[in-house]
Amino acid sequence: MQLSVLVIYLLAALTPWLYSKQQARTANILALLPAALTLWFASHIPLITSGGILVHEYAWIPGLDISLTMVLDGLSLMFALLICGIGTFILLYAGSYLKGHKDLARFLVTLLAFMGSMLGLILADNLITLFVFWELTSITSYLLIGFKHESADARKAALQGLIVTVGGGLALLAGLIMLAGAGGSYSLQEIFNSSEVLSEHPLYVGMMICILLGAFTKSAQFPFHFWLPNAMAAPTPVSAYLHSATMVKAGIYLMARLYPELGGTEFWINTLTSFGALTMLTGAFMAVRSTDLKKLLAYSTVMALGTLTLLLGLSTELAMMAFAAYLLAHSLYKGALFMLAGIVDHETGTRDVTQLGGLRKLMPITAICTLIAAFSLAGLPPMFGFVAKELLLESLLKGPVGLLIILMVITSAIFVVVVAAVIALKPFYGRFVPQARTIHEAPKLMLAGPVVLTTLSLLAGLFPAVTGQLITLPASMAVAGQPIEGYLALWHGINLPLLLSIISLAVGYGLYRYWDTLRDTLRILNPIIERGPEAGYFRFMQGIVIVSEWQTRVLQNGSMRNYLRTIILTFVGVTGYTLLWRYQVHWNWDVSVYLHEIVVVLILVSAAAAVSITGSRLGAVATMGSVGFSVALIFILFSATDLGITQILVETLTVILLVLVLFRLPGFSSTSTPAERGRDAFVAVLTGVLMTLLIMITIDVQLFPSISDYMIENSQPLAYGRNIVNVILVDYRALDTLGEIFVLALAALGVYAMIKFRPDTQPGANHYAGTLILPPKQVPEKHLVLSLDERKQIKEEQIRAEKLRIKAEAEAKIATETSSLTASNSSNATEDDSLNTTSSDEQSNNSESNKGAQ
Amino acid sequence: MMKPGTLILHVAARFLVPLQLLFSVFLLLRGHNEPGGGFIAGLVASGAFALYLFTFGAVMTRDLMRIDPRNLIGIGLFLGMISIFPAWFQGEAFLTSQWWPVMLPGGNEIKLSTPLIFDIGVYFTVFGSVMLMLVALTETEER
Predict the structure, then answer these.
(1) Is there a smaller number of Cβ atoms within 10 Å at the N or the C end of chain A?
(2) Cβ atoms of B126 and A741 closer than 8 Å
(3) What's the sign of the alpha-carbon dihedral A437, A441, A445, A449?
(4) DSSP of A203-272, one letter per residue?
(5) Do B128 and A748 touch (CB under 8 A)?
(6) Preceding peptide of A223 cis, ω within 30°
(7) How distant, in Å, are the alpha carbons of A75, A144, A464, A475 from that of A472?
(8) Residues of A whose CB is below 8 A from B96
(9) pLDDT band at A832 (very low <50, low <70, confident <90, very high)
(10) Comparing C-alpha atoms, which of A729, A373, A255, A780 is closest to residue A549?
(11) Which of chain B's residues have a Cβ under 8 Å away from the Cβ of A635?
């Protein structure tokens, strides 16, 4: 199984090479791999149906409990079949859809990488591995959604999807770590088999919130649903793949996977059912308002995702059966519908259903497939969608939910019927709407996917018992974590769910007849929708920009003194607080000192005092040097030879560096006011006092037994060195030293870069950086980030320009008046100036200006 | 800023640079048992070239060094990194020190080891970093 994931990545890496050899045929060749994988996974169906699971263990980073162990059970089998099966047709479809596109190779690489990540995600047993694959799907889907990277909309949608899902991913990581901590292992199987009752763990609610945040963002649950319709900026194959079986189902998969460990509690039931129902309603409602085929489908996907969450929330065996059936049904019909919508778009050039009609005769296969798939979407017999919908209604009526949620579900069901009717009927039936181009049926390879998927949808519906036995029931059992007795059937007899189905179909079709009026009526709700979660997202993003602008102004204002003050005061505040409140300071004054020590200290102190009051820069450097050498002397007095030597050398080189730098500076002058200097002195004294206290406490308080004895004892026998300082540097603590030399090298390169490279950047050169994440109307005209000084400067310039203008005007006026009075200096006056002058003046003016022209 | 060096400085620098370099190597190699080590030795070596730099300027110092200070940094970091791996090949944790005592003719033994390689890496990194800053500053000064 590890191989199945790796081989996809490997193939992705080889794709550019393959493309250079095979050009347009590449996609078809690539499709062989997921096809083969589908067969390989299908060959495990007998094992899974007999109740077994397939485990391939592989240690990855044993030291951190991270393994690449992969597990195939009912749930992952169903997902694997969907991912590989639909993936095959998506590749075929994409090869035709993007035929001749210059970036086709790049597209195929990303698509394969995404497929591999998704497969890894659903097979992984280890929580960390699962998370890694989870993030990989986010990143690859970002690349896929933003495939048309020249379009600003695509970039924005891709970034929005990424920010929302990765933001949730961050919460998920925290949740998974809590889960591992509570369950005692990073392995899902071990957590499942352990006797820990996670729902009674004190961290239960915390970890649930974190994990659900991850799952909800990924699976576009309300209020995070807005990124999914926006992601329709992607090419259609991507939408078909990401939104039918894969990316957005990842969150659903995770919740299903963790259901045995975390599910079934009151918190779980309430959260999932309410968010699920809300998402259902939002998706269905927004779908009815849309006229874009892909938007219709996208919102109906949101609705389906809500349904799946709701079913997981119900936590009954019946609900689990419904869950698996609905998931399969949705993947089959939604994959087909997206591809069909892509075909319509591809052939006609528009996706707006109000601009389409009567295509049935020109595209018969597309029309029939759409009709069948839409039947499944609407839940009409004998499609598999009907089986799933019946189960959904039945489990809902028997489930632990209130009337409100049942009403929400039925409303959504009605809306979905409208959506299905719009998709299936509007473009293909009715009056033919002429299009700009000649329309013909799509190429075979593009039709392959929809045809196969709709056929499967139909077959699964006709033989629900077989489908249930082979695919969905094992998946339900894997979700429930226990065997389930049951079977899927098309006909349950005349009961309440069937009645509800019929009612929703009838009402839905009725609403479809008045769809245009319905949309017009719903338009009055637009102001509310505009203030929905997406507006919240944009406000949040603006908030981030505002906060970063503020903190840049406060913290990163480019003044070295401010930086130092901020850093030092933070340090003093945090450390000082801890010091005074957490530790009792014992004064340990009885230190015996020798005379020469006092002398050195006196030199030190007086040098330090001198450096802060000296009026000469060179004097400051020299006195700083004597501070350093005094410190070195102290080191040597206390027999820390190595430190002493280092201090002397560093001190020497510092003086050299300072001298080199100081020569570049303008003459010494005092630029700060006495008050500022007083404040700086206060900060300095505060820091000095704190450091002194810290050192005294460090000597006084011993929290752990000292390790110097160990080092002294073992330096000779273990590290073969008598100089303990050096042994610590290069052996005991070599990793630290390694880090330090890298820091040193980076610092040197930084200095080098500052001195050598001076690009001509202007302040605010990067001021469009934030525009990608903001809505279009918010794009700032001028600089987004301006410091106060810059603002002041601009203002002053404006005022100055204004003054100059007024002055120029006044001068011009005076000049005019004088010219009208005395014709002698009117050679530079314009014709307008002399409009109200006397005729003689005018004549002279003209003659003068003529002279000037000559 | 650099005046044409005085005669005494000229002569002294020519003699002191090789001596100081020799001393730095001495400090580097004795570091494991006596005060010294890669860091100190690197600083001493930079001190040697700093003296030369002040006397003869950046161009001549670059000529004398032959290797660009940036490459010295690279060599240093590379040596530091490769000293990690011998332990790994032995199946031990990274950075576990490995010793290869070599008997020299005449009965003396020298101990080659990964800490020694590491220390030489530190030496070159420190040397290169300091020289990079000093030469860059001097060059802008001379321009």
Answers:
(1) C
(2) yes
(3) positive
(4) THHHHHHHHHHHHHHHTT-TTSTTHHHHGGGS-HHHHHHHTTTSTTHHHHHHHHHHHHHHTTSHHHHHHH
(5) yes
(6) yes
(7) 8, 30, 10, 5
(8) none
(9) very low
(10) A780
(11) none
As given in the structure block, the two tokens for residue B120 are 């030489």
pLDDT in tens, A484-530: 777 777 777 777 878 888 888 888 888 888 888 888 887 777 777 77
Q: Flag whether residue B101 sits within 8 Å of chain A, measured between CB atoms.
A: no
Sort out which chain A residues have CB atoms less than 8 A from B1's CB and list them: 660, 663
Q: How far apart are CA A767 and CA A790, in angstroms?
A: 13
Beta bridge partners of B99: B113
CA distance to partner chain A, nearest, from residue B33 (Å): 4
pTM over cut 0.90: no
Tokens describing residue A161: 């999807």
Helix, strand counts (H, E) of chain B: 6, 2
Could you tell me if B39 lies within 8 Å of chain A, comparing CB atoms? yes
Contacts of A741 in chain B (CB under 8 A): 76-77, 80, 121-122, 125-126
Distance CA A288, CA A332 (A): 22
State both tokens at A784. 């987004």
What ipTM, to 2 d.p.? 0.91
> What is the token pair recorded at A223?
């209020």
- b vs e for A528-541, b when ≥16 Cβ sit within 10 Å of the residue's Cβ? ebeeebbeebbeeb
> Among A130-134, B29-33, B81-85, which is the least confidently predicted range?
B29-33
Given a cut of 60, is residue A837 above it in pLDDT?
Answer: no
CA distance A716 to A702: 26
Chain A residue nearest residue B53, CA to CA: A656
CA distance A294 to A292: 6
pLDDT band at B61 (very low <50, low <70, confident <90, very high): confident
Nearest to A645 among B33, B35, B119 (CB): B35
Q: Give the model confidence (pLDDT) of A282-332 as tens digits.
A: 888 888 888 888 888 889 899 999 999 999 888 888 888 888 889 999 998
